[in-house]
Amino acid sequence: MVVVDIFSVGSVLLGLILLCIGGYAIVSGGVSLAKKLRISSMVIGLTVVAYGTSTPELAASILAAFNSHTELILGNIIGSNISNIGMVIGISAIFAPLLISRITVSRWIPIMIGVSLLVVGMSYDGEISQIDGLVLIAALIAFTLYTIKSVKKQKIQNESSENETIEGEYFLSKYKIETYPQSFALIGIGILLLFLGGHLTVDGAVNIAQSLGLSQLVIGVVIVAIGTSLPELITSIIAIAKKETDIGVGNIVGSNIYNILLILGVSSAMVGIPVATDVFSNYYIMIAFSLVLFIGFRKYIPRVVGIGLAIAFAVYLGSLLI
């Protein structure tokens, strides 16, 4: 009979809680600081918030890289991107149809699919090398600059511009931090909590994988990835409750792009990540979920599609555990 160490389970649960709180603190402090520095609300929504909601995955992956748990890193990234669409967008769309802006469909979703294909191409030699990691980091810098430039020049449709402005203003209205010390304190607390949460989550997940005889890839997808996607899920549900359904898809797409360019880039630049053959099927599933957002939805994602995404996500998780 297989016995799972209760302390490992507790470690993962506590770690995920700390990751969510830490990510929330960094977003709060970062948005407040950006506002005080008079950075455009649209830029904040597309950069600070997108980076912030990816910090739990980044913390878990860096800790995994330091401990040479490279399979867990890929599981975390692939699983997070699938969870963001299947779980977060799926569940959110069940609550209310999600508006999807024209600029998201025409620009950001193709970029998300493009960076996914880039990683698949990098993996065919059996490793995402440190050089590949540097390429991803360079692409991250280029993407961030492109995003800021696009927003500043306002080269978007009026409808999309309104949607993304609402997104920035929504986050700015949420985080009311009065002083610079408070902003920096929140960011510092968030970093500390992310470090502790990442350490507890990775150690606990590895112990569970070993006790159950499961691969770190599966544990990364099933436990770590879902847990680190909770900030996106919570943010989307809060937005829906406030009737701001237009922010859901844009935030998830941005988070998925940063998951690949930032998290995989930094992790693989630290230590080359071997890619097993069974990873490719998970790559293709990740891309398939992304294509759902690109094909056939120009204005909103209806509830029936949300139900379909959630069911597909549940089936995917079930297939991993069977």
Structure description:
With 322 residues, this protein is an all-alpha fold. It has one domain: NCX, central ion-binding region (A middle domain of Talin 1). The chain contains twelve helices and four strands; from the N terminus they run αααβαβααααααβαβα. The protein has a two-stranded antiparallel sheet. It has a two-stranded antiparallel ribbon with strand order 2-3. α1 packs antiparallel against α2, α3 runs parallel beside α9 and α3 packs antiparallel against α12. The longest helix is centred in the middle third of the chain and has 33 residues. It is globular.
The low-pLDDT segments are 154-173
The radius of gyration is 19 Å
Here the CATH topology equals A middle domain of Talin 1
β-strand amount: under 5%
What is the end-to-end distance? 17 Å
Across the major sheet, the strand order is 1-4
- Total beta-strand segments: 4
Structural class: mainly alpha
| Global shape | globular
Would you tell me the overall average pLDDT? 78
CATH architecture: Up-down Bundle
Provide the CATH superfamily.
Answer: NCX, central ion-binding region
Major sheet: size, sense and barrel closure? Answer: 2 strands, antiparallel
Return the string of H and E elements: HHHEHEHHHHHHEHEH
Topology of helices and strands:
Elements: H1 6-36, H2 41-66, H3 70-95, E1 98-99, H4 102-123, E2 127-128, H5 130-153, H6 158-174, H7 180-212, H8 216-228, H9 230-241, H10 248-270, E3 273-274, H11 279-294, E4 300-301, H12 303-321
Antiparallel strand pairs: 1-4, 2-3
